[in-house]
Amino acid sequence: MHHLLLVDDEDIALRGMYDLLLREFKDLAIYKASSGSEAIARLESSRIDIAVIDISMPGMSGLELQKIIVKKWPLCRTLFLTGYDVFEYAKEAIRSGGADYILKLEGDEVVLSALRKNIGILEDEEKKRAELALKLDEAEESGSMYEQLHKFARGGMAAACREYAAANVRYIPGEYYRWAVAVNRLMKQLNLAEEASEKINYSSLFDFNSFSCAEAMHCYISEVTGAIFQILRERGSQNMDRHVAEVNNYICNNLEKDLSIATLADCFHFNPSYLSRMYKKKMGMSMSEYICEQRLKKARQLLSASNCKIKDVAEAAGFSSPSYFTQCFSRAFSISPQEYRVSK
């Protein structure tokens, strides 16, 4: 579930927008704040994925608040609400990397459309991070850090990743600085710098003279790349957990429907083979095994709590035929459905 923070110092506007978003976005956790200080307090207790902020507020402007939000939650998307009198001010914020903006008088549908667009961007970014984490885990099995980086680069990642994945940076200032520039660019693109600075001495990135020898330089390179991999794996793992939980929730609520890998992949906008690999990695079983397990669980509940015919139980639990249901049930529990009902 994504978390949205709505900030506006005008009480009527705040309540109206809050009610609108609650009606239109049932799958969002929505918070509201009437000032910058109240919004900052919320940042400490909840992750924020999207912030909708009035750009002109007394005390702390929307732009000032956005900088604080992004520092705390670097992946947060921001949507500024602005009046005509600060329209140019808002455009300048966007040009300098702020986010997106909406004129307050444009109406509800414009706000909703902009939010849907930003939610879509968030979901795309999360999927990319989940795919990246899977690639990193696969690469980690290949041997040394340098070999991992080569495999990572060959896997079709962004150009910045391929630049930074230098296998043999020689102990030459020019080569090292090219690597450092590429790493710095990558960290900025993926908002890694603040997290990485907690794990490595980030200030040494452009200080070639701090290395006493080639071994010291290569140790630092390994330390930096290791920290990057760790952060990306942690981010990607969190996204994979959420995606798998969403798939499982859908499965459990739609057992009687078609739950083929192609159908589920289309439903969640994943490549089928990627979804299958991600699912097995996180669950330790294939998707078909989990589906069968849940269908059998539902069948047992129906057999125990109702007088439905066996064929109706099979259909309600999502099995293609009564005979297939009986076969699966007997194989799993060493007893037929009818025998199970009688025993209860």
Task: Name the poorly predicted regions.
Answer: 139-168
Quickly count the helices: 16
Give the overall shape, derived from the CA principal axes.
flat
Class by SSE composition? alpha/beta
For the secondary structure, the number of strands is 5
Helix content: 55-70%
End-to-end CA span: 39 Å
Question: The biggest beta sheet, please?
Answer: 5 strands, parallel
Task: Describe the fold and architecture.
- This protein is α/β, with parallel strands linked by helices and 344 residues long.
- Helices cover 64% and strands 8% of the residues.
- The chain has 16 helices and five strands.
Give a quick rundown of the structure.
With 344 residues, the protein is of the alpha/beta class. It has helices at residues 11-24, 36-45, 62-72, 87-95, 108-140, 145-154, 159-164, 173-189, 193-197, 214-253, 261-268, 272-283, 287-305, 310-317, 322-333, 337-343; strands at 2-7, 28-33, 50-54, 77-82, 100-103. A five-stranded parallel beta sheet has the order 2-1-3-4-5, with helices on both faces.
